[in-house]
Design goal:
Layout (H helix, E strand, L loop, with lengths): L3 E7 L3 E7 L5 E8 L11 E2 L1 H19 L6 E8 L4 E5 L9 E2 L7 H8 L8 H4 L8 H11 L3 H6 L3 E5 H9 L9 E3 H4 L5 E2 L4 E2 L1 H7 L8 E3 L2 E6 L8 E7 H8 L8 E5 L3 E8 L10 E6 L7 E8 L3 H9 L9 H7 L8 E3 L17 E3 L7 H27 L6 E4 L6 H11 L3 E4 L4 H13 L6 H4 L5 E5 L5 H16 L7
Parallel strand pairs: 1-5, 5-14, 9-12, 15-21, 21-22
Antiparallel strand pairs: 1-2, 2-3, 4-7, 6-8, 10-11, 13-14, 15-16, 16-18, 17-18, 19-20, 22-23
Helix pairs in contact: 9-14, 10-12, 11-12, 12-13
Amino acid sequence: MADYAGALDQGTTSTRFMIFDHHGGVVAIDQKEHEQIFPKPGWVEHNAKEIWQRSQEVIAGALGKAGMSASDLASVGITNQRETTVVWDRTTGEPISNAIVWQDTRTDRICDELAAHGGQDRFRGTTGLPIATYFSGPKIKWMLENVPGARERAEAGDLVFGNIDTWCIWNLTGGPSGGVHVTDVTNASRTLLMDLQTLAWDDGILAALGIPKSMLPEIRPSSQVYGEAIGTLAGIPVAGDLGDQQAALFGQTCFSVGEAKNTYGTGNFLLLNTGTTPVPSKSGLITGLGYKIGDQPAIYMLEGSIAITGALVQWLRDNLKMIATSPEVESLAKSVDDNGGVYFVPAFSGLFAPYWRSDARGVIAGLTRYVNAGHIARAVLEATAWQSKEVVDAMNADSGVELTSLKVDGGMVVNELLMQFQADILGVPVIRPTVAETTALGAAYAAGLAVGFWREVEDLRANWGLDKQWEPDMDPAKRDREYALWKKAVTRTFDWVE
C-alpha cells in the first residue's frame, strides 16, 4: 500500500496541498494565495476558476517537492473555507459569477425578510443556525435573483450549487466529464438548508428560499470514497471531506465529548465535541456536525465563529501599512507594556458569535494622544483573545462543562504574545500541538480512514504531540476590569448600519 495521505486545504486567502506520513508528520507542502475581490462595501468575492487553478498548481507543487508521484498516496481528502458559495453550469463547468465568500454581507436584506416571519431563529430548531449573511442558503437565493437568467437556468436543471469542497471534488473527479456532485455532513450543515437530525436537505426551507433541490449536491459522510481523481492525481481515491473548522477538530483528535479546539486563521473558530446528540444553544453559538465516519453515528459540535481575527493583522499590514509582514505585529506589540487603554473591535462584517449583529461595524475605542502604533498592534492581537473569551463563556453556559484547557492551531498560534494573553484571560492552559496545521491533517485522516490507511479514529490519538503550553499568569481582578472595557467597546459597534 502507498505510504502517504494527501490533503487539499482550500482556505479563504490561499490554497495548499499537504502530504502526511502514517504518523501524521508533514512530508511536503505547497501553497499559493488567490485574489480577494471587494466590489462594494461589505461584498467579498473569489474567482472559483482561479481557486481551482491554484488547487491544481499546489497539488503538482507538493508532489514535486516530495519527489513523489500520485501512486505514493493512499487517498486524498478535501478541506475548505465553509459557506463560500459557487453556482455553476453542470454541462460547461462555468461559474455564473464570482463565488460569494462567507464574510460577504450583501444578503442582509434577504436575511431580514426571512427573519420577518418567525425571527432570526426561525430555522434554528431544524438547522442549528440563526438566519445570518454568513451561511450559503441566502447567498444562493441572491445569485438566483441577481444574476441574469440564473433563476430560469436553475429551474431547468442546468445549474448546480456547491460550497468550495463540492466545487473542488467535482473538478477533481472529472468536472463536466462525470465529476461527482457531493458534499459532506459538516459542509451541508453550514448552508442553512440541512436538517440536523435527518442529515438531509429540508424541503420547507428550500421552498422558503426558492432554491430548486436539483441544484444541491448529495450529502455524504466525511470519510468515504466519493470517486477517483483525474489529472495529476489520476486514479487516487478522493475519500475525505470536512469543512475547515471541523477538519481541525478532527486533526486535533478531539474525539471525546467535552474536547475543544480553537483555530486562529482569517477568523477564529472554537469547536466543542458534544457527542452523538445535537446540543441547542441558548448563548448565540452554532449547533452543527463535527464529523461522520462512514456508517458510524454522526458526531455533533457547538461552535463559536468569529469573523475577523487574523484578517485584522492583514488589514493592519495592507490597508494601514503599519507593518510590512504579518509576523511583525508581534514585535510591534511588544514595543509597549500594555494596550494604552485601546480596544479594537473588528466588526468589519458585523459581529458573529455570540452576538449575530449584521448592523455592527468596526470600532477603535479609548484613543488618546498617548497612543502609538505599538498600542494599536497590541489591541489588534488582544481583540482575537477577547473575542475568543466571549465564545468560551457562551460555550461553558451552553454545555454546562467548564473548559479546562484549550488546544489551539492555525497560522496565528506562532504568536507567543497572543497565546500567553489568551491563557491569561481564559484562566486555563493554552496548548499548541507539534503539527499546528491540523486542518489539512484532519482531511488527510478522514481520507486515510476511508481506505484503511489508518484503522480507526483512536489510532490517530497516538500521532498527536505537544509542542508548547502557556499557563495563565494574570491577576483575576485586572482581567475582569479589562474584560468589562472590552464589553463596553463591543456595544459601541451596534446599530451602525441602518
